[in-house]
Design a protein that fits this description.
Layout: H1 2-8, H2 12-19, H3 23-26, H4 30-44, H5 48-76, H6 84-104, H7 110-121
Length: 127
């Protein structure tokens, strides 16, 4: 799904919008899933073998996202502010943290916060 969306983006604004989880505003269960994911990660840290498997799976997933973003950034002539490998880790951490924030403070505009961070990570295209 993300791959199809990134293949269709035609501007920096569309790229940023594609990376903002719609679950922040559209999914009633998003906060619950963010909490469950954070609880899982906390629990898995007590089991090194399980943590290694989880991290390996996460890194494979991140590599796939990096490849998709590389294509979109190249096509749009966008040079990310930091390496895409780091962008993807930051986006994952940001999403989880903002999901928790939405749980405890639904008045926070987490989508606007995410957009602000991504605006910095994906500067205007170089001509």
């Amino acid at each position: 799904m993300l791959g199809e969306t990134l293949h269709r983006v035609s501007s920096r604004q569309e790229l940023i919008a594609a990376l903002i989880p719609s679950a922040f505003t559209d999914d009633q269960d998003a906060a619950r899933w963010s909490t469950a994911a954070m609880e899982f990660m906390a629990a898995v840290t007590r089991h090194p073998d399980a943590a290694a498997v989880s991290v390996a799976a996460q890194r494979r997933h991140e590599e796939q996202i990096v490849a998709l973003l590389e294509g979109a950034c190249r096509r749009l002539h966008i040079q990310p502010a930091i390496p895409l490998e780091q962008v993807v880790v930051v986006l994952g951490a940001l999403g989880g943290s903002l999901g928790l924030r939405a749980t405890v403070d639904p008045a926070t505009d987490v989508a606007a916060l995410a957009a602000g961070v991504m605006t910095v990570m994906f500067p205007e295209p170089k001509e």
